[in-house]
Amino acid sequence: MSTVPSSAQIVVLDHPLVQHKLTRLRQAQTSTAGFRRLTRELSLLMCYEATRDLALEPVRIETPLEAMEGCLLSGKKLCFVSILRAGNGILDGMLDLVPSARVGHIGLFRDHDTLEAIEYYKKLPDDVAERDCILVDPMLATGHSAAAAIARVKDAGVRNIIFVCLIAAPEGIRHLSETHPDVKIVTCAVDRGLDDNGYIRPGIGDAGDRLFGTK
Ligand SMILES: O=P(O)(O)OC[C@H]1O[C@H](OP(=O)(O)OP(=O)(O)O)[C@H](O)[C@@H]1O
Ligand SMILES: O=c1cc[nH]c(=O)[nH]1
Ligand SMILES: [Mg+2]
C-alpha cells in the first residue's frame, strides 16, 4: 500500500460537517442532483480553508457607533483554475465564496489504458502571472492530471499555487509532492489507494460521470 510522504504539504479537512457531507457524496444511491449540491457545499468549505493565508491590509472604517481599524483582502486577486470537466463541479462553490475571482480552465482527460493526462483545452486569464492560483479537481488519483495542470499554470508564470480536491489517493499525493513540492494540497480525505484501473478506493467512483450524469 502506498503511503503519504511526510514531506507532503497537505491539509485534510476533518470538520464534522465536511465528513458528513463527504460520506453522503460517496454513497452510490446519491442522485445526480444530490451529488452536485454536496460537491458545491463541500467546495465552499474547502475554499474557506484554501484561502486561509490570503493577505489582509488594515483599513479605517466607521461603524454606526465609532471609527475602527478593520482589515480587507489586499489588492492581489485570486484565480481559480478548473481542471475540466469535473473541476467545474468544485468551481461553483468556490465562486460562491469569492465571486470576484478570475477563472481559468484546463481540459484534461485520463487515457484509460496508460492513465496519462491528455490535454485538450487551456484558457487562462492574461494577467494570471500576477495572481495566486487555486486549482480545483474533485479527484487526485495517480496525480498525473494535477501535475500536468500545475505545470501549465507555472508555465504561465504563476508562483503561488494551491491544489484543492475532494479525495486524494496516497499515490497522487506522492506524485504531486515529488513533481511540485511547493504546492499545498487541501482535501477532504486521503483514501486507501488506487485499484488496477486507477480508481480511488473506496472513493466516489467517476466524479465527472456522477456530476454530469453521463453514465
Ligand atoms: O490523478 P489522475 O489519475 O490524473 O486522475 C484524476 C483525474 O481523473 C478525473 O478526470 P477524467 O479524466 O475522468 O476527466 P473528466 O473530468 O472529464 O471526467 C478527475 O476529475 C481528475 O481530473
Ligand atoms: O477514482 C477516480 C479516479 C479518477 N477519476 C475519478 O473520477 N475517480
Ligand atoms: Mg471522469
From TrEMBL:
CDD domains: PRTases_typeI (cd06223)
EC number: 2.4.2.9
UniProt pathway: Pyrimidine metabolism; UMP biosynthesis via salvage pathway; UMP from uracil: step 1/1
Species per Swiss-Prot/TrEMBL record: Ameyamaea chiangmaiensis
Name listed for the protein in its UniProt record: Uracil phosphoribosyltransferase
Top enzyme category: transferase
Sorted UniProt keywords: Allosteric enzyme, Glycosyltransferase, GTP-binding, Magnesium, Nucleotide-binding, Transferase
Residues annotated as binding 5-phospho-alpha-D-ribose 1-diphosphate: 85, 110, 137-145, 206
Modes of activity regulation: Allosterically activated by GTP.
Residues covered by the Phosphoribosyltransferase domain: 12-214
GO biological process: UMP salvage; uracil salvage
Gene (name only): upp
